[in-house]
Batch of 4 targets.
Target 1
Amino acid sequence: PDLLELLKAAKISTNLDESNEENLSPKKKKKTADNKKSKAESVNKLMDSITKGETEIPKEYLQFNRKFPLHVLKQLKKSGKSPEDFFRIGEPSRDAIIVISDIQNFSKIVRAAYSEDLNEAMFTYYRKAQELIFAHGGILDKFIGDSVLAVFNYPLRDQKTYLRAVKFASELILAGQQIMSSLQYNIDEKIETGTRVGIAAGEIWTLNIGLDEIDVTFVGDKINLAARLESNCLVNGILMSNIMQRKIAEIDADLFQMMKAEKTILQRKDVKGQDTDIITWQVPPDRVMALAGQGA
């Protein structure tokens, strides 16, 4: 393996082996900190061990690190299960949360912006999106142009994830505003832009589309629904499915009231791939900004 791959493997393994100090008492935390070697030393030693063939890091961890937050990889390692079993490849997950975003008028921005400025802006946007997804416990399925597809409440389930998914969506919209506003300074044309986000909750199926390594992705009607919600959403707003809003109302009634989501019915003709009209809940832009400004 080349040096970069070794560095990545060593970093991942060191992070996975670090103890979770959040649940330790102050006395134990101090003892742990006093006895703990620096991360740089640990990485260097592990790299040397990997180079000598004394330690083997499963290559799939390098792939997983691009999509999954650290706490999920820690649970994978702790479980002792194979990745296929842990991620339930080929099986349904009934309580998944799908978040899809899109930037308004992105094609116009592409035509108007200098390539260097556009590359820098989108690099910043992609990195920020991944950072926010992981910070709120989600999974980065993929980037599709300017769109972000993230999955929450999988493979580990937690009711609070419904709240975190909405929080992520609001912070992604805010990040998009800031990054696109900076890009606008270098464009002569005035282009109205912003981010639309659709969120659906329900069953999805997990697939492995990798050849030589596991590459997790997802399929299911709820992904299509999230995409239709996004396309019908107000700019800088969040459009949720009925199931999603019900979960939020049950888990945190105060938050749901603060969001001031308005019930709307999407006609069947506006939701391609759906057989009936769809009940949705629109979170208006001003409430999204209020939500983004709240603490985690």
Note: The CA atoms of residues 162 and 198 lie 13 Å apart.
Target 2
Amino acid sequence: VSAGGESVHCRSTGRVRTARSGAGSGTEMQGSGLIKSPSVILGLLRIADIAVLIVTAIVAYGLRHGTFLLPQDYVTATIAGLLVTLQVFHFGRLYDFKLLDQFFPEVTKLITLWSGVGLILIAIGFFIKVSDDFSRIWAGLWLAGSFLGFVALRLYVKLQIMSWRRRGVLTRKLVIVGAGDHARRFIEPLQASAGPGVDLVGIFDERKSRIPRQIEGVPVLGTIDELMAYIRKNPIDQIVLALPWSAEKRLIELMNLLRTVPIDVQLCPDQIGFRLFDRSVSHLHDQVTRKQAD
């Protein structure tokens, strides 16, 4: 469950770098905040895909006809291909940040979706009876060149993400709400896991004056009111509500409160959920269920 109303599964993955204080260098964090945003990276990838389609269409025409000036009908076909591609890639969920970490699965999906784009364009040309108006060599060069361009782009992005993570630039800054047993059981596997990408900034809890200054080495930074002030002054990517699900009223209050900030808010698993991290999450209509056996 998330504050935005979407069902999500909060699971411990990634290497944690626990903050030693409540705030780091504001200049440093602000400077890396834009480039490390998954939405910005995916947006730039979409723009790059558009550029690939346009450039390869022009180059393919130049290779076939000896001029890079596209006639009107080829311009129309390029725009149609661009629109179909964006829709197929979007609904095929190619622009998924998690997929950027998995180069070969991403290329496999790209092959499937790009093949679908080609078939759709062929079908459109057949039904509106314009397929004979276009050079098949141009179409083949365009499709093949665009595919190679898409693959090269994603390889570059994959390598760039790896480089950013090594330098600590592409790191998800995370805070936890709640300093009880749920928080402890969430933090322990998160700190022990081997992958990169998570910076556990701190914990916020209403009982700040009655709890230790640190939980599993993570600093307690303040109360919920102080959290709201903190996230407006510091770049935070994700908030995890580590509270028991039985505290339904309090959870709803917090989720409603956190709707006002543009941050991903996730609900930590309840007690049994910590024992079932190897089970997948499924959706049954509007309900979320966890698979226990095949």
Note: The first helix runs from residue 26 to 33.
Target 3
Amino acid sequence: FGSVEQGTETFAKMINIFFDDGQITGERILKIGNSVRALANETVASVPFITDFSGRMAGLKQIANITLPDIIGLGAGFEEFKQSAEVSSTVLVKLIPKLANDTAKFAAIVGISQKEFENLLNTNPAEALLKVSESLVKSGKDITEVSSALADSELGSGRITTIIATLGGKADVFRDRIARAGVTMNSTAEITSAFDKKNTNLAATMDKVNKKFSDFFASKNFQIALSAISGIVLLLLNNLPILITLVGLLTVSWTAQNVTLISLRAQVLLYNLGIGASYSLMLILRVASLAYSAA
């Protein structure tokens, strides 16, 4: 599920929006997670993409009667057909409300009465969008015109055309994904199975690690190494007084050697000072002798 904290936070926001009481419970989070996991298992969609798309689409509930299975199913479909979560969700958030601005036009595109289209848009906006997209793709002539009419400065007609073409060209796939999202949201089987598998894998890994340690400690090489180390430690302990004496003698010897060296260096220094003094005296006498001769 990628980041557990991020996924749980997104699911909590969905519960606040899509459930009338807004009560966040573990069961509701598990059921949403189960639906997302089921579609990820059954299609090429991934959990992070569906979660990201669903989080971006959640605000649409405030202005349209879209359901949580609709959003999860649409997200799975868009990733399956290589559309980005950001672009596809942005287009849908702006496009679905715009269908209500000219219901007569879109009813004619779909081939039903205006009243029927308005009822469909109010009760099942995802299906209304799919029918419009499907009809535009099948006709092949109005999709660019409609996209240009629905475009704004943020989206542009090109992005809308791409999303409508994806929805219309694969409408039945999107319907199937939405239906599966609805069915799997009434269960926790998929997510429970995923958790059980993860726990089983963890338990198996721990068993392997424990076995490796057991085999290592029981191995002949380890026993030989342990015996050798034990022998060395016992030898050191048994001869500890001797070792202490040897260390003491080495310390005394090192100190004596260093004292002798220091003494020799001092003698050399005094000798050099004596030579320097003699040289200075001779220089003084030489200067005095020259001065006397000159006089």
Note: Residues 240-294 form the longest helix (55 residues).
Target 4
Amino acid sequence: FNGYNRDTTPNLDKYAEQGVVFHKNYAQAPMTPFSTSSFLTSQYPTDMGFDYAWSSVPESALTIAEMLKDRDYVTYGATSTKILDASHGFSKGFDFFSSPEINNIFLGTVRIGEETVDALITNLEKQPREDKPHFFWLHLYDPHGVYLPHKGFTDHFKREGEFDNKKRDVWSFFSVDNKKLRSAYDLDYYSVDHGEDIFTEKEVVKANDQYDGEISYADFQTQRLFNYLSGKGLFDLSRDLLVFNSDHGELMGEHRYCTSHHGAYQEVKHTPLLFSGAGLAKGKTIYSLTENVD
């Protein structure tokens, strides 16, 4: 829906057809906590005193969840990384909130989209149904290095053929040393050792394919939540509003980086923004400059 030539988001594309897409939207920072805090509070990271990647949302910052809770909404949140947890202030305003509880030895403090969607659904199932408006925030981390394989998604985007094997001066490429993950990835895929800063076209192409697989997987998991909520009478586009955005993009060989999101580059800061639902124009595109902080 944002102009990409591969069919990575078939579900979100349908919502875009029924809503408004902002084609010149930008994130406030290339790092997840900074960027996420901005669109939850409508404040810039510097205004909140953020000075390093694991800074916390200050108590003085009013979040959208707090605003809606004050208006008698029931609020649910679920994140896929521990750096967006309660200890960092990201649960502010949520009646029910979930984030990864333990560190994954290979992936760090993250969990896959299926687990995050399941956690949100589990929280919802535990609570009696209230005759009030609801607010749901789902954060997915899957289209973010290190990329994991998902059957029916990753393999769909695997390109075959011969690629230029000339080494290129591209660095910050995530290689995967764990044998189980390497086997699952079908690696030659990642034949690069940690610390090597030059990569072949083949390696960059395959990283891009895996990234597309992760986007497709996230699209599927998002729709899985929508299906569940619809079945419970909690999601109806004729009544409700859907907002989809991203905290940052990923570099795929540009600017000497690969599978990374360093710097204030166009590829990192230019992010999708989609509104769909009640009262909105259908199939509308906006080319005016917008920001997540808006």
Note: Residues 167-197 have pLDDT under 50 and may be disordered.
